[in-house]
Amino acid sequence: MLYGDLQFFDIIIFAAIAGFIIYRLRSVLGKRTGFQKEAKGQKTQPIIESDNSNQVPSLLENELKLENVYKKVNNFDHKQFLEGAKKAFEIIITSFNNGDKQTLKELVSKEVFKAFEEAIDSKTNNPSSQFYSLVIDGVEDAKVESGQISISINFISEQMLNNDEGKIIKNKDTWTFEKAVSSSSPKWILTQT
User: Fold this and answer.
1) Do residues 54 and 70 lie in contact, with contact meaning Cβ atoms separated by under 8 Å?
2) Does residue 41 lie within any of the structural domains?
3) Which of 17, 41, 105, 175 has a CA that sits 20 to 30 A from residue 140's CA?
4) Domain span holding position 160
């Protein structure tokens, strides 16, 4: 019987603690019972939303040129752009190596597509090449002119031939991606390699 008495005693203590916590929360936070009218003599202050969309976040030293875009374009996110640029680089190079003209056509400008198409047709692409590593070395240039955002990125890539880690080719490339300022699409077009 002693054990049963202790359980009952524990329940009473926990109930008392819970009641005390609820009482303190109500006294600190107050209670809302639905629609509450404004008390007489109180004036509500209008809510002024500040436009923080053009604030420049802290950038790495090799990304400082992106300040130009932040100052002129609302809701620009450099992290999202750089991540997308890496993915685009990998997709474009893989599509080029595999001779996939259809994928290339959707991601590059007409001039760049023509250069890739000529290289594929002359068999200078290498289907046995695959990515080993890819790093963004920095932002070469970033500007907003005539309603277009233009950002040039330095890439350092390593590609492996025939699945042989002894045959790794290292390349440095500077690619320029463009997009209309008014575009809500996340898609950027490669305009220069």
Assistant:
1) yes
2) no
3) 105
4) 61-192
| Residue pLDDT, tens place only, 79-98 | 999 999 999 999 999 999 89
Contact 142, 66 (CB under 8 A): yes
The C-alpha angle 105, 94, 188, rounded to 5 degrees, equals 45
Here the CATH number for the domain that contains residue 96 is 3.10.450.240
Query: Into how many domains does the chain fold?
Result: 2
Question: What is the sign of the dihedral through the CA atoms of 168, 174, 176 and 177?
Answer: positive
- Asked if 106 and 161 sit in the same domain, the reply is yes
Nearest CA among 57, 94, 97, 95 for reference residue 79? 57
**Does residue 127 sit in the same domain as residue 177?**
yes
The residue whose two tokens read 């939303």 is: 49
Angle at 139 between CA 124 and CA 58, to 5 degrees: 150
Q: Is the pTM above the cut of 0.90?
A: no
Pairwise CA distance, residues 115 & 143, whole Å: 25
